[in-house]
Amino acid sequence: MAIDKNMTVKEVLDMNPKTADVFKSFGMQCLGCPSATGESISAAAKVHGVAEQELLEKLNNVEHGEMSSETASLKMPKGAVLQRDKKSFAIVPHLAGGLVSVEQLRKIADVAEKYNAQALKCTSAQRIAIVGLEKEVVDEAWGDLETLDLNPGHAAGLCLRSVKFCPGTTFCKRGQQDAVGLGMELDKRYHGIDLPSKMKMSVSGCANSCSEPAVRDIGLMGTPKGYTLMVGGNAGIQPRLGDKIANSLEPDQALEVIDKIVEYYKNEAKRNERLGKMIDRIGLETFNEKVSVYH
After folding, report:
1. What is the pLDDT of residue 295?
2. I want to staple 201 with a disulfide (CB 3.0 to 4.6 A). Which of 63, 97, 218, 280 is the partner?
3. Where does the record place the Nitrite/Sulfite reductase ferredoxin-like domain (predicted)?
4. pLDDT tens per residue, range 63-90
5. Residue-number span of the structural domain to which 210 is assigned
6. Residue 32 — left, alpha, or beta (φ > 0 → left; ψ -120 to 50 → alpha)?
């Protein structure tokens, strides 16, 4: 089977482990990289400034077999993201909605200090990245973190990466809906599940939309009468505002519709096709009919 530009790096590596040596020869340390799960050969070539046709030619011409021991030694540690210096790593414990206990926060700081991290970074997905760890200490650092249920977050790959939510009625004086409760339930149901492409969700407790639901694949905006549901939003190179498909939803109604959306998307989307792209392809009216939304 010929390797083409639309195949993911992971698919190519699974098909022929020897291709890891080819990627390495181009300066692409793809082995174990979280982005390799969902990144196409074309996208990877562009990100790394590599000639796509030359890369494809060499991938298709390499003999089938195991990768070299030198390449195998470069495999990424569990739950780690290679940094710009191509030597150090970042790890990102999952914190649903950014909620963290005093004990967990202290543990994150202790781990960063113990293993000489270069920085702590609060991410846009409401997590705390421990940045600049040496490869040799990554597994030990996770061992320390997991004693307080601080497990790797799904920050890359074809999956539900994050559910972002604001304080809502739990903490905020402007909150009109329980963004924390609904956000935690969505995180529990969906965080990390395999999907045709990456997906992000968010819940905002009021129309100020601090969690930016209009630029998430699935976004809920709280109003005095319930939630407004938006679908197909994203930021990135080609931003897309989400389509409003339902208003005045109760939390159980919102969960019911989102269950249908996720299931339909899993079954009908093309590989690496974001929800908004799928909606543009099939039409919003058809999409609404398939998920039976509340109007």
Report:
1. 58
2. 218
3. 83-146
4. 998 988 887 777 778 788 888 888 899 9
5. 160-291
6. left
